[in-house]
Specification:
By secondary structure, the protein is α/β, with parallel strands linked by helices. The protein has one domain: Carbamate kinase (3-Layer(aba) Sandwich), CATH 3.40.1160. Helices cover 37% and strands 19% of the residues. It has seven helices and eleven strands. The strands form two sheets. A nine-stranded mixed sheet has the order 4-3-5-2-1-6-10-11-9, sandwiched between helices. The protein has a two-stranded antiparallel sheet with strand order 7-8. It is an enzyme of class 2 (transferase). It catalyses: UMP + ATP = UDP + ADP. This is Uridylate kinase.
Length: 241
């Protein structure tokens, strides 16, 4: 383990949109690019890593709007979607030579292992990249909440929330060119402002366990900067980094 790292064990949350094209589905070119970044980070830093994946490329809540589909069933479909993304990411990462394990909150024994906290920590300690699927295993909780939960359970040093923008802004930067990026915000302010890059349940869970969050634009260089302790994106915590 590189002792110079600012964070030795990280939880990386990657949204499902990063796994698909604009039309949805699985885009293995994009998944391969994600895998390449993860492989290079692991090779260059030896950081211990767990990854939580979303499923927005395969299923979203808006698909059931104005339909009689039960919300619980819709969430279960979404959980299965995260397993699909996790298996696709595992395939691409292992093709590059890294050992991985997919751990699911819902039992699918023929495809992946069931999430057991101690076993998952042991995989991480052995240098395996752990990909966490199935959300929390319960309806009504997002994969952001799952990321917050797993980060605390697995004793991670930080939760890295990969986004399509380089942090949190005071207002929508696409609508307002003069919008200023927020470098630091405490948990309570994030909850009160209703920052929509993560849900309030995730923020509240991290606040209760003092789990720092960095919201950043997903790239190899940005993750390397974070691991070196440089300021990237927006830091959410008790006090500035």
């Amino acid at each position: 383990m590189n002792k110079k790292l600012a964070f030795k064990r990280i939880l990386l949350k990657i949204s499902g949109e990063n796994f698909g094209s604009e039309k949805g589905g699985l885009d293995f070119n994009k998944i391969g690019q994600i895998a390449s970044i993860i492989q290079k980070i692991r090779k260059d830093t030896c950081v211990e890593m767990a990854i939580v994946v979303g499923a927005g490329n395969l299923f979203r809540g808006r698909y059931i709007e104005n339909t009689p589909v039960d919300h619980v069933v819709a969430d279960q479909i979404g959980m299965l979607g995260t397993v699909m993304n996790a298996l696709a990411l595992q395939e691409e990462i292992e093709r590059l030579g890294n050992n991985t394990r997919v751990m699911s909150a819902i039992p699918i024994h023929t495809f992946c292992e069931l999430f057991i906290r101690r076993r998952t920590i042991r995989h991480i300690e052995k240098g395996r990249i752990v990909i966490l699927a199935g959300g929390t295993g319960n309806p009504y909780f997002t994969t952001d909440s799952a990321a917050a939960l797993r980060a605390t359970e697995l004793k991670c040093d930080v939760l890295l929330k990969a986004a399509n923008v380089d942090g949190v802004y005071e207002k929508d930067p696409e609508k307002y060119p003069d919008a200023k990026k927020i470098d630091f915000i405490d948990y309570q302010s994030a909850l009160e402002k209703g920052i929509n890059v993560m849900d309030n349940t995730a923020f509240a869970l991290c606040q209760g366990k003092h789990m720092p969050i960095i919201i950043f634009q997903f790239s190899l260089e940005n993750i390397k900067k974070i691991l070196r302790g440089e300021k990237v994106g927006t830091f959410v915590g008790d006090k500035p980094l």
